[in-house]
Amino acid sequence: MDKLAAVQKELTEEELIRITNWILNNKCLEREQVTGWIDDVYKRFEKSSAWYLKMK
């Protein structure tokens, strides 16, 4: 939660929502899965983004 609070202080609500929507809608994870290489960091960003939007 401390990391989220720090990010929220630096970005506006609108910026955070745009970023989370981009992460969830840009289809990078599906593209990477096709190549057989899956980025665990990206999966964490995707999971965190979904959680953040659900909380809003």
How would you characterize the overall build of this protein?
The chain is mostly helical and 56 residues long. It has one domain (2-55). The chain has helices at 2-10, 13-25, 28-35, 40-55. α2 (13-25) packs across α4 (40-55). The longest helix is centred in the C-terminal third of the chain and has 16 residues, at 40-55. It is elongated, with a radius of gyration of 12 Å. The model has no long low-confidence stretch (mean pLDDT 79).
Which key phrases capture this entry?
56 residues, 82% helix, 4 helices, elongated, mainly alpha
- Find the count of extended strands (DSSP E, 2+ residues): 0
Mean pLDDT: 79
Helix % is over 70%
Enumerate the spans where pLDDT stays under 50 for 5 or more consecutive residues: none
> Radius of gyration, rounded?
12 Å
User: What shape does the CA trace take?
Assistant: elongated
User: What order do the helices and strands follow?
Assistant: HHHH
- Major beta sheet, specifics? none
| Euclidean distance between termini CA atoms | 15 Å
Query: What class would the helix/strand composition place it in?
Result: mainly alpha
Q: If helices are DSSP runs of H or I spanning 4 or more residues, what is the number of helices? A: 4
What portion of residues belong to β-strands? under 5%
Task: Please identify the oligomeric state.
Answer: single chain
Q: Write down the domain tally.
A: 1
